[in-house]
Write a structure and sequence with these properties.
Order of helices and strands of chain B: EHEHEHEEEHEEHEHHEEEHEH
Largest interface: A-B, 52 and 50 residues
Number of helices of chain B: 9
Radius of gyration of chain A: 25 Å
Distance between the termini of chain A: 76 Å
Shape of chain B: globular
CATH class of the largest domain in chain A: Alpha Beta
Number of strands of chain A: 6
Largest sheet of chain B: 8 strands, parallel, barrel
Strand content of chain A: 5-15%
Distance between the termini of chain B: 48 Å
Number of strands of chain B: 13
Largest sheet of chain A: 3 strands, antiparallel
Number of domains of chain B: 1
Strand content of chain B: 15-25%
Order of helices and strands of chain A: HEHHHHHEEHEEHHHE
Number of helices of chain A: 10
Oligomer: heterodimer
CATH architecture of the largest domain in chain A: Alpha-Beta Complex
Chain lengths: 263, 298
Amino acid sequence: MAQVFSLPRLSAADFGDALINPDLGTPEGAVGPDGFPDVQRFNVYRNNVIVSLCEALGETYPSVKALLGEEYFAALARAFIAEHRPSNPVLIWYGEEFASFLAAFPPLKAYPYLEDVARLEWAWLQSYHAKDCEVFDPAALASIPPADLGGVRFRRHPATAIVASEWPIWDLVRVNRFKDGEQSQIDLSVAQPVLIVRPEFDVDVRILEPSHAAFGVAIFSGASLGEAAETALEVDSGFTLADCLSNFLSNGALAGLQIKEPA
Amino acid sequence: MRSDKQPVSAFCTPAAVPRRPGAGLKAEHVADILQSRPDIGFFEVHAENYMGAGGRPHQQLTAIRDVYPLSLHGVGLSIGGESPLDKDHLGRLAELNKRYEPGLFSEHLAWSTHETTYYNDLLPVPYDQATLTRVCDHIDEVQHVMGRQMLLENPSTYIAYAQSTISELDFLKEITRRTGCGLLLDVNNVYVSCTNQEQSPAAYLAEFPMQCVGELHLGGHAPDIDEAGRPLLIDAHDRAVDDAVWALYKNVIEMHGALPTLIEWDNDVPAWPILLREADAAQEILICAQDADLKAVS
């Protein structure tokens, strides 16, 4: 075929920009069978990209989606995607910034709990996919001399997380994600920091006493049992270490311990 | 010497994927499948769904792999991309390949990542010399890192590149010649692309290098129209296989014999028995073709 003009070359950069930004129009080099660009055809790709990423966010954040409604969530997801394009083909790792995006989104100022609901759902997903690991067997504690207990440091189980919150995030997730309970019965004045665990394959969420949450945050940032207990006592003078430790152990939140002080 | 021996498989079922129908594995079907143990040739998974470190997905896939052969199908490597392949992603594919010993491994003639953006769709590539060279380099790299042959899937396309200078068939043939990779012939993609590009699917299939094909795909598509009112088929994988695609499939099997055949149903996923029924429909076509073969021999 003789060419009297040079054909428009379409680069991946231009193709990609046109996918995300419809204002750029249909690239000239992307044509239908008659050799001319066709917006409906290019829109199939635009739609695939946006809809599939919105769906991925909706699967990661079903409670946020249920709380906001399909339509609002879709618009919000589009705004998020425009600011945070995924960089990795593994979409279980996409959307970590959604919680902070919600917090900074002015129209949602009246719903301050959404951020923490999203943080819980992100932690839930990471727990679901975390590395398999045996939980710590409490029997091992029996061999430690009582005088050494205060210096013990625990290793977090890879599927364990603590989500601190001033809001009833577990009730919000239980009702909106797991369809367990009534929206009208959620008391927004209740704080529910939670412990997320996955001893085997099923993720469990447990509401924590504020002092237990403080204890957990402390031991998972490397504090010894004694140091973490002091932190917890500052939160609640009625804190008892035995009850708290038993709570973490029975829920399978820990993976192991080290007795000696780290050098 | 121990190191000279082949590694002993951790699974009860041999790796090889039989020339029978299989189904795309969906998490919601796994319990039903493990309980009912349907008579089906294999399961195929999207590799990216199993790239988490552990948990339920791996537990389920291990249980399935113990009972059925597996085909590993990547959807995010961006073999047709202008950027270099993502080494980390390729490493994750190699790890899954080692862990699950799939009988087949396939990826797409498409791109999805450019620079730092992953577009989460199988985007089309221009058929020109520069792209051909790049795709072949990428396939060489994949086959080297994975230590095995890969199958490359023909795309479903909605547009063509004005700058293309090579036909899709010649492009695919040249890739197999240069790299030694096999092909995954998606019959639904042929029907979708040929309709969208106003070409004959039968003529395309008659020219397809069948000697390179290691697997077939069948899936459902959604009909639409473009701005000019021409038919525009969308590779939606959201419904049963279309009659026109079954007819093309029957023709391929009668001409070339049985091949592993996957039923893809990724959106609006039905209950397991409905997906199994699609696989059974493919099995009937395979059996008819085998009967005809036997009659011709005797």
